Model the fold of this input.
Amino acid sequence: MAPHLLCVGGEDHALRIPFLLALQNRGLRVSAAGTGAAGAFAENGISYHQYQFDRFGVGLSDSASMGQLAQVVKRACPDVIQTFDTKPNLLAPLALRGSVPVVRTINGMGWVFSSTEPRALAFRPFYLAMQRLAACWTAATVFQNKADKSFFHRYRLLGKSLSTVIGSSGIDTAAFETAQARMASPAVLRAELGLDDAEIVVTVSRLTVQKGIATLLEAAQIVHQVRPKARFLLVGPRESEGPFAIDQALIERHAPYVVATGARSDIPALLGIADLFAFPTEYREGIPRVLLEAGLAGVPIVASRMPGCDDVVVEDWNGRLVPPRDPRALAAAILDLLQDSAHARIMGRRSIEMVRQEFDLNVVADRYAEVYSHLLSLSRSCDERVAAYSSSAVQ
Done:
């Protein structure tokens, strides 16, 4: 029977369905566990198990989540478990304690190591201790960028687990290009959004302070003063972000040159009308999928000089990198590219082949399949040695 992979994530886990289908095409039997709805998984024939955890809390709720995960694993009986996101990366190894090989993917360091708030600084020692403990029952750790791998080595957070770098969870370049080809006419989309002949700067992100949205709004005001036809399109959820959400009143203060659409499913189409993609994150990202989508769409990028972003954006080659939390630097970079649109288009086109070669879903899935195959072969070798020892002991 094909090896069974259980992939554990959070509320956005459905975004990894293409990744799971690619692994399925490589001979694995796949299922998933997450905190979001099951519908998208059912539509793709993937068995799905729901559990819950509190993204913003620590304590008894985490113990309950570990109990739920242990029950999910007992029902699913996987041969190997893959985890994504901060909480699942900690909860799964602690819940299972080596009973099943766990591969955790560090897709960014998140709020604790990105924020300068006293609460985040106070929480860091606890996070480091939890990571060291989780490493005791982790078979392999995958990093999406080299900076995070260096961090884990420096603070000795890997234990004896294997480690490697695999950039991103992959992007289905063929599906993205098909979606672009089927998208609505740019003129129709511009009219729908009230953008007409504006210069459009697109940002796709959770609308939180930590994602740099407050910085972007300040930069937008500066840009608008110089280029009145510039419009900033903010695409992504706000209400679901709890205490991290940007204040709606702050967004409204920058109307009409800032348009917040909420979450949308037509990102390829929106990128098709973009003159520029801005990503002002203050997070230590893994590899932001939105940067890969912008790159594949051939849109020049202005991003924060943060881990993960600088794995995709090369300064003055396919975009610009600016310091986080610096609205003037962000505005200056945006203005430079808007003012030299011919050079900006050249920059954008350079990203297309780079994304296809380094971050295509098939490339990424092959690399993950190799990790699982290696771990399963080690597990089989161990089982064979135990069986041989037991047999000789009986004799």
Summary: DSSP finds 15 helices and 15 strands in the chain.
